[in-house]
Design goal:
Blueprint (H helix, E strand, L loop, with lengths): L6 E5 L10 H9 L3 E3 L9 H10 L9 H13 L6 E5 L1 H11 L5 E5 L12 H11 L8 E2 L3 H7 L6 H11 L3 E2 H8 L21 E6 L7 H14 L4 E6 L12 H13 L4 E4 L7
Parallel strand pairs: 1-2, 1-3, 3-4, 4-7, 7-8, 8-9
Antiparallel strand pairs: 5-6
Helix pairs in contact: 5-6
Length: 281
């Protein structure tokens, strides 16, 4: 009998660091799991990691998708048994790509960005990323959103005071190269975000959406789910938490999303699933 995974790997998204998982990590550790929160190359953990990037982000300016994937794969390969892999935003993309590479016992993509072949681009997503993509020179820079841009893209369901508190604690410059690589994947041969939708041997994969997410609305994860469900015999699922924005890891009521994700990963089931109806926001 195969034992249940005892390790969870949490992968942060763009404009964030491992600190974004502080609440989820503590909750999962209370349930007896070993929790790893690796940063991208050049991104250190904790409040010190946030402060360091705000002081000087040059170390991450040229980091791309493949560099991050290789770094994360090395972390997972060093484990004694396959972990549950969860990621938020572009971290969800990395979780999906790692599962596609044969890693992990189960994968959860939370508000995940598109892999190559998922072309949904709602207007709110375009508006959220345009401050970075409008300047091609940013592809070689680490770029920070303003507090106003962060409020629109990440925390649109929160008031300005709560949004600013989240921005002050978590937001950092991000390697814009990753965003360009994701955005240009459709016209890039052998793009770094290429994924085999027909892979029937991969681990189970869950897509979680926030119903009010601006930067990565449910349409993105829905199309991703549908392409996987259509072409692969592997377990694939999708759920939407109505009224939630992109700041899933810290937005009030995050516990419902965290518990749903872990409970599913321990007992994967396919299809379009109802999220917990009693979200305690």
């Amino acid at each position: 009998m195969i034992s249940a995974p005892n390790t969870i790997v949490l992968i942060h998204g763009l404009w964030m660091t491992p600190l974004a998982w502080e609440h989820w990590a503590a909750r999962y550790e209370e349930r007896g799991f070993t929790v790893l929160t690796p940063g991208y190359p050049g991104i250190e953990p904790g409040e010190a990691g946030v402060a360091a990037l705000r002081e000087d982000a040059s170390a991450i300016a040229g980091v791309g998708v493949r560099e991050v994937l290789e770094h994360l794969a090395a972390v997972i390969d060093a484990l004694d048994s396959p972990p549950i892999i969860m990621g938020h935003s572009f971290g969800g993309t990395f979780a999906q790509l790692l599962v596609g590479a044969g890693l992990g016992a189960a994968g959860v993509s939370i508000d995940g960005a598109a892999v190559k072949g998922v072309n949904a681009m709602p207007f709110s997503e375009l508006r959220s990323v345009l401050p970075v993509l409008k300047d091609p020179a940013n592809a070689h820079r680490a770029v920070l959103l303003t507090a106003e841009q962060f409020h629109y893209a990440f925390t649109n369901t929160l008031d300005e005071k709560a949004s600013l508190a989240a921005y002050t604690r978590y937001a950092v410059p991000t390697p814009a190269r990753i965003l360009f690589q994701g955005g240009l994947a459709a016209v890039t041969p052998h793009a770094a975000t290429t994924f085999d939708f027909a892979d029937g041997d991969r681990a189970p994969l869950l897509f979680v959406s926030g119903g009010s997410d601006h930067i990565l609305p449910p349409a993105v994860q829905r199309q991703n789910y549908e392409k996987n469900a259509k072409h692969s015999a592997a377990v694939t699922a999708h759920t939407v938490f109505d009224g939630r924005d992109h700041f899933t890891c810290g937005e009030p009521g995050w516990e419902a999303v965290a518990d749903f994700a872990l409970d599913w990963a321990l007992n994967p089931r396919a299809g379009v699933l109802d999220a917990t109806p009693d979200d305690p926001r």
